[in-house]
Design a protein that fits this description.
The complex is a heterodimer of chains A (578) and B (394). With 578 residues, chain A is of the alpha+beta class. Chain A contains 25 helices and 16 strands. In chain A, a hairpin with a 6-residue loop joins strand 4 and strand 5. In chain B, helix 10 packs parallel to helix 13 and helix 11 packs across helix 14. The chains are: A alpha+beta (578), B alpha+beta (394). Bound molecules: iron/sulfur cluster (SF4).
Chain lengths: 578, 394
Amino acid sequence: MSLRQYILVVDLASGRMRREEIPPELLRAYLGGRGLGVRLLRDRHTFSPFDPAMPVIFAVGPLCGTPAPTSARLSVVSRSPLTGTVYDCSAGGRFAWRLRAAGLFAIRVEGKSTRPVVLAVTSAGEELLPADGLWGKSVGETVRALSDRGSVAAIGPAGENGVLYSNIMMGEGNAVGRGGLGAVLGAKNPKAVTVDGDRPVPVADRERFDRARADVLRLFRASPVIFGELGISEYGTPALVDLMRQRRMAPTENFRRTVFDGSPAYSGPAIRAAYGAKKEGCFGCPIRCKKRASDGRALPEYETVSHFGALNGIADLHAIVRSNDACNDLGMDTISAAATLSAWGEARGRFPSPEEIGPLLHDIALRRGEGELLAEGSRRVAETLGKPELSMSVKSLELPAYDPRGAYGMALAYATSNRGGCHLRAYPISHEILRKPVASDRFSFSGKARMIKIAEDANAAVDSLVACKFAFFGASLEEYAELLSGVTGEPHTPQGLKEIGERIWLTERSYNARNGFTRADDDLPARFFAEAGSGGEGIDVPPIDRARFVEELTKYYRIRGLRDDGSSPDDGFLERQP
Amino acid sequence: MRSLIAKYAEKLHRDRSVVPGRVGIAAQDDVMLCEGAPDLSRLAADVLSRLSCLGIVAASPSLPFASYLLRRANADAKSIVPLDTETRTFLHDIPIVRREELGGDPAYAIAALLSNRKGVIAEGVGIVASGPVTLEQAYIHYSSVYHAAFVKYLLDALRDGFVLPGEEEAFREFRETSLQPLSAEGLSFRAGPLDDPEEVLAEIRAVGRYTVERGLVDSFFGNISWRVGGTIFISQTAASLDGLAGCIDPVPMDNRSTTGITASSELLAHRRIYEATGARAILHGHPKFSVAMSMLCEEKDCPVKDCWKDCPNVRMLGDIPVVAGEIGAGGLAVRVPPVIGGPGKAIVYGHGVFSIGRTGFEEAFRSMVDVENRCREEYFRRLDARARRQSKSE
Ligand code: SF4
């Protein structure tokens, strides 16, 4: 297959748009998605996130548009206003394959338009439409107004008002979440991007591709986490609620405790019973982990129910679902919103009640009242209130619903993640909790430094393919390398993909270093080293041994080829890369 | 890490899948550690240094079957393709590398193959397997290749006879001296029905261990459960049958909790078997002769191509039903429950044996021993008949 792929470069200041060929060597070296986006930031990575010249890059992967399972996804890449790090997020839905079907592999949006606009893309071309009437509208209203234009990626009021954890929302309810890329886009004045392509994507070696696809599906069927009767296909990610309760690692009351007695109220089976949850998925995905209520609204993910639940001490499922609805409509990250409220709650001595949360979320999105401060995320809130230790974040990104005292690989992974406190980079939950592909001892640091390094590289490749992490609860890079070989007609191996992932990871680390990040930023909040979690039922959850954590982090740097202080001995690394 | 290396070397010796002393294991943390036979551990370390991977096992298999498969393969073959379920699902195929292809730097050639597969058969070396996430995974991959090669060799030998010099003698030696008789004698089982969870867990752990100690299954190939009222106590996915402490999930049969998301992929099959039979205990393992015999079907002109998952028939090996079906969410959970109740045992095509205990594990264990013994007998009966036919025709 030809490697000729095109990027649409949009300068919002001048209104000029052009399709450019992406140099094939960049696609070989970075695959697509996260990797390509990160590479394309190279000459701007030190710009402020709100500098009009800072691009927002939407990039699909080489499998997008083919029947490769879980691959109709894209990454959005820029610099996060919340963390200051290079930032990417993968999102599913239908947008990605419609973008590819419009003959595009990527879009780079830069500059700032004087008025709100909508970027509308089809196979026939692209245009900028005036969107003054949409400014101020919710995500739902915006998506409905643009529904005849294919798939919509839109910002809500939170993105317009620069909330540091605002999302870009896909019309189907999927989010480009966590790091505030909604605000980065909003600062340039586009309200939405629509895509509606209709071109097929060729597969170079159909037989090889079909064989690999059958292998992947067989592995999905053999995975209890994916297609098991208690797995994510049945219950969505809230299938994890009961498990995290049982493993005593459900962050509760701003991580003061790790078991919440009210969690059965929002478990997978409870959500199914209350909302008649139906399966839905990203385009062409056989897993269909997304759940929708019988009235059509998107039901929350595990991290959302747990953080609007246990983290704020709330056991009211309907209030949690309403919080999720509000965040989706306002275009705001659920994990950071809930965690910021929780840190604020602990600081003022009272967590918000279910009734208070809805109005607070609106205030945040509109930056009014208490919302003005809360829109800045937990680190800035806690610092402003004089209690910086209450922000449960790494590099200012709020930790999701996996308590690091219950899984030491997770502890290390939070610390080393290039985009801050994120569970999806090394994703050790896969082996530490879900036993896939094999189990590892969650209360041991032994070997974790290398496991985290390998997984970070592998997942950088996964995010660049762009495949869904959930696929890897069953399949492995072995099958995805085959899918890629089938699509491109060029040979790929898991080892080769991991090497690409390593290049991407080191590029991100280099950007962060040039933006002032050091070893001091690769750390966890002090609480985890000082306070025990909620042990019981035969499970002890002690504080993390700081000396052992530091030792393993140092090992990790060595394995990465970095100095013990986390810096790189190789100043010329970036310049030597394709 | 050193203790883990010792643990898996010991396990490989204990499950008798390696020539004593012929194991090399390498693992890397921030430094490379390797132990075992000097040549094999050096090779393992050299391979590992070329891969993004946690550990490597390199060992000489205790039986020469993998090496025979390599030598029996076509000169231009790059891999062998065993068709048992384990291989179909997890290994896909197994690369082979001949002595001349290993060249002066065998680690280079082996690493190149392992960059794309979990295990490789290398002539003059044995089986080399990788563990990208943990060292245990390298051990599992070694065992998977060993198991797959064993089963494929049994089938190939039955179909094609012995073709290499010394092969027949080696096989006779295996049959007469290395193949342990299987039995349940001397084992103690708790008589059911048990209701106390602690006792149930202890019994599951003990019986899991028996299956490995008696040579019925390799340690992680199988799962086991016990039902108490509306709860199934079942081994977790990717757990070793001889190491189940802390790896047994209590799963409510009405799915009111999803804690069992980490339970064995066969949870659904277990639940349906309990519902269909009223049994108290289920044992599932992959004894090799049973796996091999389940893949021998004499049906002529059958239109079904993917027999392992699509065959709608119940074939009988004596009184043992054999059905098709994929693991996990595949058809196995549909096809086993209706046939297992009467005989108390069933085989799944290319996969392994399920057996039930109406009151306790003793019945299930004895059934599994019986199935494997009868499959062995039947296998050798057919092999001998083949030899007689061959000598007559000569
Ligand atoms: S598993 Fe879920 S999130 Fe992943 S691609 Fe499929 S539907 Fe989307």
